[in-house]
Every structure is written in C-alpha cells, then in structure tokens.
Amino acid sequence: MSHSAQNLHFVAQPSSRAVGDIIVPGDKSVSHRSIMFGALAQGTTHISGFLPGQDCLATMNAFKTMGIEIEGPDSHNNVTVHGKGLYGLTAPKETLNVGNSGTSIRLLSGILAGQKFSSTMLGDSSLNKRPMRRVVDPLKQMNANIQASDAGTPPIVCEGLADNQTLKAIDYHLPMASAQVKSCILLAGMYAKGITKVTEPGITRDHTERMLQAFGYPITVEKNIDDCVEKTRISIEGGHPLTACDIQVPGDISSATFFMVAGLIAKEGELIIRNVGMNPTRIGAINILQQMQGNLTIINERMAGGEPVADIVVKSSALQGIDIKAQDVPLAIDEFPAIFIAAACATGITRLREAEELRVKESDRIQAMADGLTTLGINCTVYDDGIDIIGGQLTSGTVNSFDDHRIAMSFAISALRAQGEVIILDCDNVATSFPSFVSLANQVGLSIIAKA
Ligand code: S3P
Fold first, then answer.
1. I need a labelling partner for 172 at 20 to 30 A (CA). Which of 221, 283, 371, 400 fits?
2. Which of 253, 252, 327 lies closest to 77, judged by CA?
3. pLDDT tens-digit map of 27-55
4. Is 254 a pocket residue for ligand 1 (Cβ < 6 Å)?
C-alpha cells in the first residue's frame, strides 16, 4: 500500500492544554461493514460519515476489483455502493492487497469462501505476520477450499467452490473473543446450507449483527448466562437476500479515546467530542476511564442509523490506578494503548490481565507499549496476558510505534504530560484509521509535527 512509503515520524512537544469542541471521523468497523453489505445487497446503499482511512479504502478497493461500482468518498465522506446481490461479485484479476487491515482480510475470508471463483488475499508486513487460522479453520469445517500459509498467516488462498459444492452450516464456539472471527463465520453463513450458529465466550462488538438486520437479513441472537458469564449465540440461515439501505456511520469511539485521554491528562483539559458511537459492545474505555476517576460526562444520547451515539464532555482529572475488570477487556480491546497512557499519568498501579489478544493486534501491543513507557521513565511489568503500570512522571525520548497506528497516537498524546519532546517513529499507519489525527490534535492545543 502506498501509505507505507513516506516514513513519517511524529515530534510531540509537551503542552498544557487540550481544549475544544471536535468531531472524530467515522467508525472503522462500521465503515468496513457498510461497504461489504452494500456490495452484497440488491440495490444502492448510501453511506454517510464513512471513514476515509487506508483500511476502509482497502476494503473498498477489494470490492471494486470484484466488479462492484462504488462512488466516493466525497469531501463530506459520503459513499454510494451499487450492490449486485449475494452472487454478484466477479473473480478478481489480481491478488487482493488489503494493506494493514485485519478486518478486511478476516471478514472477506468469510465472503470469498462462499464464491465460485478463486481469490488470494495478502497485506503489508504487519498483517502478513498476523494469525489467520482462527478464520481458516472454521471455514474449512464449513467445506471451504481455503488456506493460509504454513505459519497460519497471509496470504489466504481460496479456491472457488465447484458447481455442485456449497458451504455447510456449523455450530461453532469461538475459542477467543473476536468480532472479526464471529463476523467471518456469519458472512460465510449467508452462503451455507442450513443454520450456522456462533457462540462467543464474551461480548464482542456486534456491528455485523446490527447491519445484517439493517439490510433485512434474518438472524437470531440469544443471550445465556453460563458460568456467570454472558454468552451470546447468533444463528443465521443461508440463502436470504440483503436489501440496500442507508447507513449513517457514527464517530469512532476508538479514535475518540485518544482525545478522552488527552482531555483527562492535560493540566488544562476541557473537550467536547461530538457524535461518538456508544454501542454497548464498544464502551469499555469509558467504563475504565471513569473507574480511574476520569471526569467524562455523556450528553445528548440519541440513535443514528441503528447505533446509539452521544457527545462526551471530558475534563482534566486526577486519575487513579485500578485493576481493570476482565469483562471490560473485549469492550475496550482497541483502546488499551491510550488507556496505558492514562495509567502512566495516574496515581498508583493499574493492572490488566486476560488481555492476551493484545499481543496479536497490529503489533504486540503489550510489549510495544511497555517498551515505549519504559523509555519514557515509567515502571511497568509485563505478563503473558497483561501488564502492571505504575503511574509516574513521563520524561522524554524516542519511542518505536512498531508501525502500529494506535501505539503512535497514544505516545503522541503522552507528550501532554512529558518533561520534554517525545519522538515517535514510523507513524505512516496512523492514516489507516485516523488520517486527520495530527491536525485535530493540534487544533485542541497539542503540539505534534509529522515529519518525513
Ligand atoms: C474489529 C474487531 C477487533 C478489533 C479490530 C476491529 C472488527 O478485532 O481489534 O480493530 O471490526 O470486527 P478482533 O476480532 O481480532 O478482536
């Protein structure tokens, strides 16, 4: 992908304030799914608030390569998808390169598994190291002719189904809490004979289920309490049509979290973050930051396009270290790098466990954050499934982002409370999820320069 060519680094200076009234860009998970369902629906889908980040553009390009006409995003982030129905995709003439995007490769695997044509997907150097057996194995159980490399990583090669072959429904218990794996199986389930069932071990984001319903596809969602843990089982029968609809993408709570943390840790912090998606499966960061005594107030709660949204008022706060509750982990899974910066600025120890999934994100986020925090003078102890962070004074120094957008943005925010300059290496991938991050951060009083 072209975005890796610039070799940007950020130079972030300490600053005393994070003040302003901002809107964060559209939700990444919802934007991906709006393109996928729009492409597979009958009719024209209009999307507003689409995230023009590299990851979502990679999904868009993959569908264009498979014959779907898509207009936009225009300057207002509107996108129009001319859907061709469940069986309207055409064979891609080239390998589908989805860059840095785990959501693209894992969800597309479920769709491609149900096609009659062959396809190959791969990504950038970070994605090409990430685990794919978690999707390939259940898809094989569904009779898909799909394979990852011997190491279980991309490329994912999918041989088309023979004319007399169809996917078969399975009853699958997810071995880990993963919305990407759940979504992959549900998407394949649309092409399978029979009723596919997916049970998740904990709550994960439910945008796929919501969007299936918005596009008129029948699913059943059952919630049971098992061993004191709420388990959700989703059932989907193959062969129903998707009907085009209009999608309003809410602001991304994952992007908003950088500004929540900035407003909380700044000496002078008063931010209003507007139109943030408040889906109950995504609000772990708010729960955790409030438990840390963060002054976050949720106002103007409303529904937009089938998802709850609200505005968040953030005020500078004396944060306290906490033991993070296991049930909040999947609900805050992408927000931990930013939460770790809050922990570094808190009084006392913050402990996180049962978060081993963080080790297989765009980077090993436990180690990447521990390395950078240590460079900046913060004491932390790493565990297989988590970390202890002792709040203290951030100093200054050069930290590695490990090409991970969320690590880069977290350390950029940390400079608010550092004693000197924080330089963050390899920041190109910030464009995957939050292309306007630096300008929005500077608008509210941070001091970040992106240098080639
Ligand atoms: C996502 C699910 C999560 C998350 C990722 C987006 C999605 O991944 O980390 O950024 O859109 O379904 P996992 O399913 O691997 O937890």
1. 283
2. 252
3. 999 999 999 999 999 999 999 999 999 99
4. no
